[in-house]
Automatic annotation (TrEMBL):
Keywords: Bacterial flagellum, Cell projection, Cilium, Coiled coil, Flagellum, Secreted. It is found in: Secreted; Bacterial flagellum. Transmembrane segments: none annotated. Its main location: secreted. It comes from Acidihalobacter prosperus. Pfam families: FliD_C, FliD_N. Residues 230-448 form the Flagellar hook-associated protein 2 C-terminal domain. This is Flagellar hook-associated protein 2. The keyword Secreted applies.
Length: 472
């Protein structure tokens, strides 16, 4: 008599699923654990190399900056309240005494008083021209500024008010600002030009009714009045008199811009042009900082911690060892073509610490630049180029770090395939075991059914005592 088993274990009373699971774990568990541990280890290495690659890329950037250093010079002032000085880097060293006796100022003109800002002013065209006046003649002689062109403003029924004229001038954006001033008795149009005597205004009206807004010099037939006269800046540089249309003087010293902010009283302002040592110090310090980040990650990932008795995931890795050796040699190696007194970075103030990091003695570097600025820059350019070329090749697409990470990724891919293959074998083994235990379960169920049947049949037979004839 056969039975139908709808759920494994029902016939035998055994937990078939648990038995199969334990058998699978016994067969495949160690392999899974091994692969998982390998996968975790490789992922940890990949993450560590990501940090190392970032560090080395940063070091490479700072080396490129060292290789790109140039001899540049900055300017400073002894009194920034009167004169500030900036350099574009091309200036040559020197000291200059600057005295300022006048600041450049812009001409301002004002109209007569109107009853309101919206008062009607007429229509027509006003033409504005920059230039200079000779007010000693009658009428004054006007010489147009050849660097500028006349600008015409048209006033019609849409803007024929005092405010409309001011807006039209400002919107033309040609170097004249217009405002409306309430003087307490009424409203005046105020015009301000650019600084310097070459930016005085000549304003004419052409076939219009705007005659209240013309200007042709202080002694001319002007309807606008001059409220502030144009003026050039007057200064002396090492005793040489200079006149400037602007308070920003760019052509007195090559490569240096002087910004005039006030008048000197007593001693002149000392302007000094000297080596830009700050830029050099910053570039060297950036290299040291970038290297120290690399060194700290090397300690984190490629060393043994005796306190915790744990090894870094990259301990003994040849790629990391090569990088460490490269940088350490770079600090002490001879710089080809550098001045004799600056044969390596140690001569410029860089020293190695016992924990693998670097330190910069800025005083030593500063003293070296004071002694031979050109030589220091040349040495740093050379080491930046030499070491940077080697380091750059390591982080490139064909570099050793890329090759190492590619190798790790390939190993991770292989492990994924092993996981997949292992999973397939586990499924096959599980199917086989389930089939075997299901068959056994069915057999046990059938045996139980047979046993129950036989027991029932035997129980229905007459007993020996009941089949004996009395008296027989």
């Amino acid at each position: 008599m056969s039975g139908i088993i709808s759920s494994p274990g029902v016939g035998s009373g055994l937990n078939v699923k648990s038995i199969v699971s334990q058998l699978l774990q016994a067969d495949f568990g160690p392999q899974q654990t091994l692969l998982t541990n390998q996968q975790n280890g490789l992922n940890a290495q990949l993450s560590a190399f990501g940090a190392i690659n970032s560090d080395v890329s940063s070091v490479n950037s700072t080396l490129q900056a060292l290789g790109s250093l140039t001899q540049s010079y900055n300017a400073s002032s002894s009194n920034n309240a009167v004169v500030t000085a900036t350099s574009d880097g091309t200036a040559t060293p020197g000291s200059y005494n600057v005295s300022v006796t006048a600041l450049a100022q812009a001409q301002s003109l004002a109209s007569s008083t109107f009853s309101s800002a919206t008062a009607s002013i007429g229509t027509g065209t006003l033409t504005f021209q920059f230039g200079s006046y000779n007010n000693a003649t009658t009428p004054p002689t006007f010489t147009a500024n050849s660097a500028t062109s006349p600008t015409s403003i048209t006033i019609d029924s849409s803007n024929n008010t005092l405010q409309g004229l001011a807006d039209a001038i400002n919107q033309a954006n040609f170097g004249v600002s217009a405002t409306i001033i309430n003087n307490g008795s009424g409203y005046q149009l105020s015009l301000t030009s650019s600084a310097g005597t070459d930016h005085q205004l000549n304003i004419t009206d052409s076939g219009s009714s705007l005659g209240a807004f013309t200007y042709s010099g202080t002694n001319g037939a002007s309807t606008l009045s001059q409220t502030v006269a144009a003026q050039n800046a007057q200064l002396s540089l090492n005793g040489v008199a200079i006149s400037s249309q602007s308070n920003t003087v760019t052509n007195a010293v090559t490569g240096v811009t002087l910004n005039l902010l006030g008048l000197t009283s007593g001693s002149p302002v000392a302007v000094t042009v000297g080596p830009n040592t700050g830029a050099v110090t910053q570039a060297v310090q950036s290299f040291v900082n970038a290297y120290n980040s690399f060194a700290k990650d090397v300690t984190k990932y490629a060393s043994y911690d005796s306190k915790t008795k744990t090894a870094g995931v990259l301990l003994g890795d040849p790629t990391v060892r090569n990088l460490v050796n490269l940088f350490q040699n770079g600090v002490v190696q001879r710089i080809s073509g550098a001045p004799a007194q600056y044969q390596n970075l140690m001569a410029l103030g860089i020293t190695a610490n016992t924990n693998g990091t670097l330190s910069l003695d800025t005083s030593k570097l500063s003293a070296a630049m004071t002694s031979d600025y050109s030589g220091v820059v040349t040495a740093l350019q050379t080491i930046g180029t030499q070491l940077g070329s080697t380091v750059g090749s390591m982080v490139g697409p064909n570099g050793i770090i890329t090759a190492r990470t590619n190798s790790i990724n390939q190993q991770l891919t292989n492990i994924q395939k092993q996981f997949s293959d292992l999973s397939t074998r586990m499924q096959q083994e599980q199917t086989t075991l389930m089939q075997q235990y299901t068959a056994m379960d069915t057999l046990v169920a059938n045996l139980k059914n047979t046993s129950s049947y036989l027991t029932s049949q035997l129980g229905s037979l007459p007993s020996a005592s009941s089949s004996t004839t009395p008296g027989g």
